[in-house]
Amino acid sequence: MTMKMKQQMMNKLGLLVVAVAVAVAMAPAGSFASSSGRGAPMVPAVIVFGDSIVDPGNNNNLKTQIKANHAPYGMDFANSEPTGRYSNGLIPTDFIVQGLNVKQLMPPYLGVELSPEDLKTGVSFASGATGYDPLTPVIVSVITLDQQIEYFHEYRKRLVGVVGEEETARIIDGALFVVCAGTDDIANTYFTTPFRSVEYDIPSYVDLLVSGAAKLLDQVAALGARRIGFVGLPPIGCVPSQRTLGGGPHRRCEEKRNYAAKLFNSRMEEVIAAKTNPATTRMVYVDIYTILQELVENGDKYGFTETTRGCCGTGTIEVTGLCDARFVDICDNVSNHVFFDSYHPTQRAYKIIVDYIFDNYLQFLLA
Length: 367
Ligand SMILES: *[C@@H]1O[C@H](CO)[C@@H](O)[C@H](O)[C@H]1NC(C)=O
Hints:
Elements: H1 3-26, E1 46-50, H2 92-99, H3 116-121, H4 135-140, H5 145-163, H6 165-174, E2 176-180, H7 183-190, H8 194-197, H9 202-222, E3 227-231, H10 240-246, H11 255-275, E4 282-286, H12 289-297, E5 306-310, E6 337-339, H13 347-366
Parallel strand pairs: 1-2, 2-3, 3-4, 5-6
Helix pairs in contact: 2-13, 5-6, 9-11
InterPro entries: GDSL, GDSL_lipolytic_enzyme, SGNH_hydro_sf, SGNH_plant_lipase-like
Pfam family, one: Lipase_GDSL
Keywords: Signal
């Protein structure tokens, strides 16, 4: 680099610094209250119950194998930090709080120091590998949904300690609650262990899950939730590990798992239609089956060249403990993969899914 080029670059850098300084100085007072800085928060807080799709690290200090706090998880997170999120970067609840101008990241309730601001804007109680079937979390020693409700009561007390009872009631009243679980019940408990499949056929097992999910919705409503987004099941038979386990030599989508997911979804749509009450608690069924199936079937339209294998290892079976950078290789380009490990989507796929949710459901959730 010549002296002249260096000088030009320094001048440009100087201009950039000035421009940033001006932008900061001109930002209206209070714009840092919502750390996204892109306008007023659309809800005061987001509160999350569920499984690994929405778990930002609550399992990290549990005695369980189901954790994602090691590389390559988090390889595209700030500082490549493996926070416990089950992806290469952000997970859906991070994109949800960003999209609602609430904050940049959805923190876990457990294992981190929560600032007053964190408490005021909501936390996630979700635990990877939990489910609506009470047996599901027990098999893998993770947090039950009942325990997540208990943690909410503890959280609420802490929030009262920070902002008082009246403001706490206002925050809960305005908050968006998200419920997302059920894939582990079908993929793990029903199709991988013998504990349920000997007693239940698919429709009767789905009945058990529907009653568990309906009970959870009642419990969340009883917390004072006035807006609940209930996330349905994805095409479980099309995730890489389930193709490997049930999809035959060509690793096709496994139809029984997809049938179970679709049956659960249609039953929950009915349950929610019957339970929702705009005067007390508005509940919205959020379909993610269609968009994930679309990404898997027509990946090329979205820039995905690999839709049946995860980015981690062979992509056919590695998840949590088996997806470990010490033992397996990582794909060359995570951005062209729908799945990061053999079970969980990549950050880029999650972003597309959340954009779809915002486009199709936000008006109903915030009405
Ligand atoms: C990685 O994949 C993305 C998405 O398909 C694509 O836009 C990008 O060019 C790829 N990067 C490389 C280095 O091939």
